[in-house]
Amino acid sequence: MSAPESHGIARGRRRFRPTFWATFCAVPALIILLGLGTWQVQRLHWKEGEIAKREERSQGPGIPLPGAFPDPAAVEFTRVALAGSFLHDQEFYLGARTEKGRVGFNVVTPFRLDDGRILLMNRGWVPENRRDPATRAEGQLAGPLEVEALLRTDGWKGVDFAKPPNKPEERFYFWLDLPVMAEGVSAGPIITEIYADAVFSEMPGGMPFGGQTRIALKNDHLEYAITWYSFALILAVIYFLFHYRPEEEGPDDAA
């Protein structure tokens, strides 16, 4: 009577033998992780370009305001030098905005340029208890003025489902809608393609607090890219080690 055949483990011999279900799960996951990492690299390049554009356009002395704006996005963040006077009795409020943890509003005031055109200008932030112009009368500058500002485009910048409705009847806006706001100004002609964001300057009474446009943007896309690529590498290593197993001995090998 012969002894039963036995199959052992070949010492020092390993083979990469992937299994179906592990491969079925790992490959799509790896593709997704690599895709997320690549997407973050693309976002990194976009963000670096956006920051460079803002810095280039916003630095240096202000230029005269263009006479027309066929492509408002092409001049956004450009620093301009303006001469004219504010129409303080027709200001709007942009909320809710925060400054150092305090809730308030941005004051948007029509600015009559020396050439007769009117440009809406975000003068800056005020706290809730200073919404009434009488509480910040020192900052309601009168007469001919020279102001430097950054050109900005209007419209809702977020996702559509989160877009809040404005309240034109209260002169209160969550996002700037220049054509609608122009209807609330009893003067003209009004520039509706673009508005101005006043650069920071020391105001009498400290209000409004200008310089609300952010030039330096948070840029952590490189860290995210490294994270996703690291997850992909870890998954690939685990997948390989899991399937790189000792090879079983056949009957011929055991003889």
TrEMBL record:
One GO cellular component term, please give it: plasma membrane
Q: Which InterPro entries match?
A: Surf1/Shy1 (IPR002994), Surf1/Surf4 (IPR045214)
Q: What is its main location?
A: membrane
List UniProt keywords, sorted A-Z: Cell membrane, Membrane, Transmembrane, Transmembrane helix
Which Pfam families does the UniProt record give?
Answer: SURF1 (PF02104)
- Transmembrane domains' residue ranges: 20-39, 222-242
Q: Which family does it belong to?
A: Belongs to the SURF1 family.
Membrane topology label? Multi-pass membrane protein
The species this protein was found in? Pelagibius litoralis
Q: Could you tell me what this protein is called?
A: SURF1-like protein
Q: Where in or outside the cell?
A: Cell membrane; Membrane
